[in-house]
Specification:
Vacuolar protein sorting-associated protein 35, transport, 813 residues, Vps35, single chain, Serine Threonine Protein Phosphatase 5, Tetratricopeptide repeat, membrane, two-stranded antiparallel sheet, protein transport, mainly alpha
């Protein structure tokens, strides 16, 4: 049974048809189309036009069906139109060779069914217009009016779309009214044609919503969305007409479109068509019709998602205004921000039940507009942020936006916009930014604060004043001190939590961006502000935030030293900085490990020594003694004690401000500490280091006030002998051999330094001892490393044996 008979027998909806039935119906229809198309082509080849029209009408009759879904109907329509194109080409060829019939346009109007009749009229009318057989203006008006005869939504939409496609290149696009134009038409005729076609198609499209059972509503809405491009094509054709200028768009095109959009009262149609208007027409048109467009937005159905429409328009105009990296594209007479601000306020006011997240999204788009189009006018951005805060204050007083809600997510996006557009110094000029940030719960505030810090670090922004640092800390308090609403997060704020460690490392890195390059006093104020702020963060945060303050304070003392000729009080300022550092490090001693404060104390001793102020020795001795006290508290942790003692010895060797009394006390204490270490190898190695305290370390000569090396031969030899004795007492053969090698290297160093009592004979005895002991160790992987080290020592000695000083050196090959 043909599709035509199926339509005649059953005009019901296709809602009840299964997928298999749909495919069968489509296959049957396509088969009928191909049969009639084949017959049409055959008779046309035989120059039988009337028979060809008869078969074409039968083929087009398949489009009368109401049983196919929109998707399947589209497939059928594509095949039919493709076959119908053969008829069009045949008729065109006939007219080009002077064989065309002049009455076909009237003849096909007697076709029995309206759908085939109108498709044939459109096809033949298209051919007649191109062949100048009929006046273009009359045919176009005739066709668009006759299409009213098909009121079935699906059939009508595809029919009018076919009409629009056929006349695409035939629409008049001229403005001159002359004798010729009376037949061909002008731009006004094209506007009437497209606007009428658009109006009728939109009515058909909306009517689809109300056909069938309510249980199929969701399916019908989906089908309508699949067909929306058919309606939108009319607006695309309007935008392609060259004679449509701003004035004509404002007075003719937009009012007609808006009248249809507003009057249809259908949310799907209104959302799509408003978006389509924004996208297809030029930016200049939108700028000159902004008030009209936004006024129409307020008249849309309450169920329309007005948020997306307004955001799309704002984003497009924002991009247009900054297209070439400039902000000059907006005419001075158009106050873009003021217009949008007022209209958005009216929209929010008129829609009482608008979700908070939609309100924030609108404010975000407006904020983006203000920051990009009016970059230097911070009052616009402040106004948006202030209005956002007021809106939420009116919704719920003294309550934060619940974490994880759409509104919270939109607020986070909003607060990221200024960070992306500006550097942090400009963001600080937005006074109400902090107030909006306070609307968020702990987790969202944490996200924004991390985003701010990462932005500062990525852009390498320098914050040069204490006032700006204070303002920044007000934004970042969530990361700096415990929050009243972070009770659930307290357990994670420990050194064992990787996220917390990463977060606090970022805060610590941020401190390096607090620089007042030309004003040391300003830098001092920054340090004090950081101290006052970070001291409220708790000990777990201080382990991260205090060290950069301390190191910056040490660095500042050098800056004061460099300007000592311009600043008479430089020594007092340095003393204040060292007192501050001492206070901060003392706080860090409460940590479970003393390694960090010990290192900071030693760094302070070095800094005081290099500064060379009047009380440098007192400060350095205080810092060094504090470090030594921390070392003594590490009893029980042999590895930590050994490492700390190595640091103490190395630091004392570099400090140059100690007089003999203090220097002697410290070097003797360190030497005794070396002998008190638990493990023999540690004792040997630290004693070897201590030898440098009695030789190359520098002390202050009180008479000349200049530093000089200690060069205490006896103490050096005493340390070497003690280390040698301890080495002989070590039970582990491999470790003993390794230490003999280290002893030999130390003896070689002092031999080169011309230390009395160290001669070739002593070196030869050590070499012999080392060679004998080396033959006793195994050849495993660990011992192989020791052998390589010894071999390097011997290679060096072989090179030196060529020198006169090393004559008599005995090394076995």
């Amino acid at each position: 049974m043909s599709m035509q008979k199926a339509v005649d027998n059953n005009r019901s909806s296709n809602a009840g048809l299964s997928m298999d039935n749909q495919e069968k119906l489509l296959a049957d229809a396509l088969q009928n189309v191909r049969q009639h198309a084949f017959a049409m082509k055959r008779v046309l080849d035989q120059q039988s036009v009337m028979e060809g029209l008869k078969h074409a009408a039968n083929m087009l009759g398949e489009l009368r069906t109401s049983l196919l879904s929109p998707k399947n109907y589209y497939e059928l329509h594509v095949v039919v139109v493709e076959e119908l194109h053969h008829l069009e080409l045949y008729l065109t060829d006939e007219f080009e060779h002077g064989r065309g019939s002049h009455d076909l346009y009237e003849v096909v109007q007697y076709a029995g069914n309206i759908v085939p009749r109108l498709y044939l009229l459109i096809t033949i009318g298209h051919v007649y217009i191109r062949a100048n057989e009929l006046p273009r203006r009359e045919v176009l008006r005739d066709l668009v009016e006759m299409c009213r005869g098909v009121q079935h939504p699906l059939r009508g939409l595809f029919l009018r779309n076919y009409l629009l496609q056929c006349v695409k290149s035939l629409l008049p696009d001229t403005e001159e009214e002359n004798q010729e134009a009376s037949k061909t038409g002008t731009i006004l005729d094209s506007l009437d044609f497209i606007l009428l076609n658009f109006s009728e198609m939109n009515k058909l499209w909306v009517r689809m919503q109300y056909q069938g059972h309510t249980r199929d509503l969701q399916r019908r809405e989906q089908e309508r969305r699949e067909l929306r491009i058919l309606v939108g094509t009319n607006l695309v054709r309007l935008s392609e007409l060259e004679c449509v200028n701003v004035e004509r768009y404002k007075t003719i095109v937009l009012p007609k479109i808006m009248e249809q959009v507003v009057s249809c009262r259908d949310s799907i149609a209104q959302e799509y068509l408003m978006e389509c208007i924004i996208q297809v027409f030029p930016d200049e048109y939108h700028l000159n019709t902004l008030n009209e467009f936004l006024k129409a937005c307020r008249e849309l159905s309450a169920s329309v998602n007005i948020r997306n429409i307004l955001i799309s328009l704002i984003d497009r105009l924002t991009a247009y205004s900054t297209r070439d990296g400039s902000q000059q594209n907006i005419p001075e007479n158009i106050q873009l921000f003021d217009i949008f601000s007022e209209q958005i306020a009216e929209v929010v006011k008129s829609r009482i039940n608008m979700p908070p997240e939609d309100i924030v999204a609108l404010q975000s788009a407006l904020l983006n507009l203000s920051l990009k189009c009016y970059r230097d006018q911070f009052e616009y951005g402040n106004k948006v942020l202030e209005n956002t805060r007021k809106i939420f204050d009116n919704i719920a007083l003294d309550t934060q936006v619940q974490t994880g809600t759409p509104a919270a997510k939109e607020l986070v996006k909003m607060l990221k916009i200024p960070i992306d557009c500006y550097d942090i110094l400009d963001v600080l000029k937005l006074n109400h930014y902090k107030l909006v940030l306070q609307l968020l719960s702990y987790r969202e505030r944490h996200t924004v604060c991390m985003y701010i810090i990462n932005s500062i670090l990525d852009k390498e922004t320098i914050i040069p004043t204490a006032e700006q640092v204070t303002q920044l800390f007000e934004l970042l308090l969530t990361l700096i001190i415990d929050q009243t609403d972070s009770a659930l997060e307290t357990s994670r704020q420990t050194i064992t939590n990787e996220d917390f460690v990463e977060e606090q490392n970022l805060v610590a890195r941020l401190y390096n961006n607090f620089q007042a390059p030309n004003d040391p006093d300003q830098q001092y104020h920054i340090i004090k502000i950081c101290q006052d702020t970070f001291k409220n963060g708790g000990l777990e945060r201080m382990r991260f935030t205090y060290p950069p303050i301390i190191m910056q304070a040490y660095a500042l003392t050098f800056r004061y030293k460099n300007i000592r000729e311009q600043d008479e009080k430089w020594e007092k300022k340095c003393q204040k900085l060292f007192q501050l550092c001492n206070q901060l490090i003392n706080t860090l001693t409460k940590l479970e490990t003393n390694d960090l404060p010990l290192r900071l104390y030693l760094q302070g001793a070095l800094a005081a020594s290099e500064i060379g102020s009047e009380n440098a020795e007192t400060i350095a001795y205080e810092f060094f003694s504090q470090a030594y006290t921390l070392y003594e508290e590490q009893a029980g942790d042999t590895r930590a004690q050994s490492a700390s003692l190595t640091l103490l010895i190395g630091t004392l060797e570099k400090v140059t401000c100690f007089a003999e009394e203090n220097h002697s006390t410290l070097r003797q204490s360190l030497t005794q500490a070396a002998t008190r270490l638990v493990k023999r190898p540690d004792q040997v190695r630290t004693l070897l280091l201590c030898t440098h305290l009695f030789w190359s370390a520098q002390r202050l000569n009180e008479s000349t006030q200049k530093s000089e090396q200690v060069h205490d031969n006896e103490k050096v030899l005493a340390c070497l002998k003690k280390a040698t004795k301890l080495t002989t007492q070590i039970m582990d053969q491999s470790v003993q051999v390794q230490l003999y090698n280290e002893l030999l290297n130390t003896y070689i160093y002092f031999f080169n330094q011309n230390l009395p009592d160290i001669d070739i004979t002593l070196l030869n005895s050590l070499i012999e001892k080392l060679q004998n002991e080396m033959s006793k160790i195994s050849s495993n992987e660990n011992d192989e490393f020791i052998r390589n080290q010894i071999q390097k020592t011997f290679d060096y000695l072989r090179q030196q044996s060529q020198l006169e000083k090393f004559q008599g050196l005995q090394i076995n090959n």
